[in-house]
Amino acid sequence: MKVPPIVPVNQAVTRSVIRAIHRVIFRAILRAVIVGLISLSLCSCNQQTAQQVAKRHQIVATRPQTKAVNVTHQYVCQIRARHHVKIHPHVKGYLNEILVTSGQGVKAGDLMFKVLPNHFQAKLDALTADATIAELELDDAQVQNADKTASTPDLALRKAKLDKAKAHLAVELEFTMVKAPFDGTIDRLLHSRGSLVEKGETLTTLSDNSLIRAYFNVPETRYLEYMTEMKQHKEDLKVELLLPNGDKFEHSGTIGAIDAGFNTQTGNIGFSADFPNPDGRLRHGQAGYALIHLVLRNALVIPQRATFEILDKRYVYVVDNEHVLHRREIDVEHEVDDIFVIRKGLKLDDRIVLEGIRNVSDGEQVDEDAKEAD
């Protein structure tokens, strides 16, 4: 039987002391590591909190306002003369005389053309002869009446016969003359002297440009708006004419007529505006733009830069009492200069983001400038 070696007492004590020291050192290291991790965690939390505070965006808010706004609507229009007619001969025949030139101004009743029908001369000679015979018979009857050889009824009969012959002659002569039906300007002459023209064939056109009319189409929503304005404040509804070269016509106009019904395919209704044209600057057939100006009273307006657009819809950021932003859709009625006229979506007491709108998002809490924008 082996006897285990005897370890000296001092050596055993030394080992126990070393193990105890190791445990103390390990616990100290572990404690230090835990404390370090906790400190790092606290620092990280503090940094995140500081970053969150630093990330609060500064914004400037404003409120909607009510004011009178001048609104202009533009419509493509066709310009027409007050009177514009085609000139036709009453009978078929040769164009015997042309008494006007293209672009010439004429007065109502002025003689413009004479047409000689190919059978007219013989008929005219016969009617002239009838009138001459009737006149001779009347002269003879008057002589006999003076001599008491002719009765009064016979004298009256012969006078009536003369009047009838003259009337027939006057009618035939009138058919050969083409006169101006109203004051106006002659258009291009379509035939030359000596041409054979048919009854009803166009010789030229005549236009009265002293007053011109601009015809344009208005959508139903605008029509209702104009009707309300004309009923309540007709003096505020003004019409101007913008010419193709960008100039405004010097004379303002008035709404002249409105069609009886809407076009069911387009949803529009026809308007016409009358413009004085004393110097004849405008001519029949021109094109331009009708500008309708009206005043919107107590319109709710906001700056355009306080809005943003997503998929053809326009929004604003509304700031609540906790300085949290809420995205809200708005309905814009009119766009005027740098403001929007709001139909719905906002109230007077709403606060909306004006400056800093590009840096914020829906649901974000922000720092609001103490001074509200005007």
Short summary:
This protein is of the alpha+beta class. It has helices spanning 9-54, 120-146, 152-175, 220-232, and strands spanning 58-62, 65-87, 93-98, 105-106, 111-116, 177-179, 184-186, 196-197, 204-219, 238-242, 254-258, 268-276, 287-303, 308-310, 313-319, 325-336, 339-344, 352-355, 367-368. It contains four helices and 19 strands.
Oligomer: single chain
Helix fraction bin: 25-40%
Q: What is the CA-based Rg, rounded?
A: 49 Å
The CATH architecture of the largest domain is Beta Barrel
- Unreliable sequence segments: none
Shape: rod-shaped
Overall number of strands: 19
CATH superfamily of the largest domain: RNA polymerase II/Efflux pump adaptor protein, barrel-sandwich hybrid domain
CATH fold type of the largest domain: OB fold (Dihydrolipoamide Acetyltransferase, E2P)
Order of helices and strands: HEEEEEHHEEEEHEEEEEEEEEE
